[in-house]
Structure to design on (445 residues):
């Protein structure tokens, strides 16, 4: 067994504790340990630090750096014939493959990890990870099989903390199968065990799970209580990953009970927290939901920006899917505009029916313009432009590019180009300069 100087041992312990809440500080502690190990030629310490740093890089999405550290660690472990560390390294390789959606490779690595280790605790944790892989690929029965194998080993050895974690994983599967009452029972048992061990991190996760299950069974008050408990627990231990996820869950609750301001504030909090630690998954979820929330409130400019940011974050979204979402936003914008026109029509009908005169704001502006400006003969004929063509023309005159016009009006670039071509036809112009000149000539701007 390697006996480390107290300061170095504390560095590695600190890194393990900070891995979720403050990855940057965790990395500083690991790098200090690595520097000491190399200076003192302590291969065993270097091996531990490399494995820990490989895990940290894996958790923060730095997969190439993670693989490099783990490959180096595997060489050191093979040279020292350290089967225990080899098992741990293959376990991390399995995790790395899992995060990159290479599920067959992940399964192979984890089964190899089990073959290296006789440690029942490690084997149980690896069974648990195998359950997570099969859960991810939708094979719930295999997932439950491995989770139950892990639970049996944990309970036989009296490992209450790990048993509580596995109970929670089984609850997640039951939740996916819409067996919500069974899921709630497992989550409650897991939470009770975590509470007895004062495991705040595990409590936060299980309370969030309970909130999600109560949300699905429309017990909204209970869902709110558990989400609030989970958030408070995560704040206590500064679990940034957890807080981002819980804010997204709370936003889902507010979507169900239709509290727009709360939806937006929670999604914004989720995005800011996720961005602070590079958690792309929660960033993507928050921006996609924010786009919907802004559109629901009629704020299409922010909705469009959120949609664009979502597309930039999610590299898996195809160009066609991006365009489909933008077309959907444009259609919603057009529907809102039409609704406003219908409301104005209804107001006009009521006023005329009541014996009053009614002039729309646009007509009032035109009448005022005619009364205050002398038209020349060249201005006698004014081409008729649609509302959208007028909007595009104003932005062209303001020297905006096609891309900028598309962003401002929530339409695609190809749609802008079509409007520009129609404007050139109506104003008898061959290029942008002619378009602006004739727009001035016909008093359209």
């Amino acid at each position: 067994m390697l006996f480390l100087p107290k300061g170095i041992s504390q560095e590695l312990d600190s890194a393990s504790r900070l891995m979720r809440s403050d990855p940057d500080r965790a990395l500083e502690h690991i790098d200090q340990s690595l520097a000491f190990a190399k200076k003192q030629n302590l291969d065993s310490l270097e091996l531990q630090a490399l494995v820990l740093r490989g895990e940290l890089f894996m958790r923060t999405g730095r997969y190439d750096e993670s693989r490099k550290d783990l490959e180096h660690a595997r060489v050191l472990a093979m040279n020292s014939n350290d089967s225990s560390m080899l098992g741990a390294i293959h376990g991390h390789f399995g995790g790395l493959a899992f995060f990159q959606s290479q599920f067959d490779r992940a399964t192979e690595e984890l089964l190899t990890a089990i073959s290296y280790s006789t440690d029942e605790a490690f084997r149980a944790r690896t069974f648990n990870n195998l359950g997570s892989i099969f859960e991810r690929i939708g094979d719930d029965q295999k997932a439950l099989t491995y989770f139950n194998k892990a639970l049996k080993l944990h309970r036989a050895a009296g490992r209450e903390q790990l048993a509580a974690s596995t109970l929670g994983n089984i609850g997640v599967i039951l939740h996916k199968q819409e067996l919500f009452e069974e899921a709630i029972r497992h989550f409650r048992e897991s939470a009770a065990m975590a509470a007895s061990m004062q495991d705040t991190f595990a409590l936060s996760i299980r309370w969030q799970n309970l909130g999600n299950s109560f949300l699905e069974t429309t017990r909204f008050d209970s869902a709110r209580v558990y989400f609030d408990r989970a958030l408070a627990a995560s704040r206590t231990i500064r679990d940034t990953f957890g807080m981002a996820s819980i804010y997204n869950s709370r936003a889902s609750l507010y979507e169900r009970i239709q509290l727009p301001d709360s939806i937006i504030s929670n999604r914004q909090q989720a995005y800011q927290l996720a961005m602070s630690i590079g958690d792309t998954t929660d960033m993507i979820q928050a921006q996609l939901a924010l786009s919907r929330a802004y559109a629901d409130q009629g704020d299409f400019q922010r909705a469009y920006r959120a949609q664009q940011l979502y597309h930039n974050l999610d590299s898996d979204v195809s160009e066609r899917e991006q365009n489909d979402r933008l077309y959907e936003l444009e259609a919603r914008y057009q529907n809102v505009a039409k609704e406003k026109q219908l409301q104005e029509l209804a107001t006009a009908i009521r006023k005329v029916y009541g014996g009053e005169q009614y002039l729309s704001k646009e007509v009032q502006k035109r009448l005022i313009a005619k009364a205050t400006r002398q038209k020349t003969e060249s201005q006698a004929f004014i081409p008729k432009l649609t509302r959208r063509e007028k909007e595009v023309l104003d932005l062209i005159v303001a020297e905006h590019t096609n891309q900028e016009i598309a962003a401002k009006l929530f339409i695609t670039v190809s749609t802008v180009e079509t409007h520009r071509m129609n404007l050139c036809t109506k104003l008898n112009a061959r290029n942008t300069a002619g378009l602006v000149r004739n727009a001035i000539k016909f008093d359209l701007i």
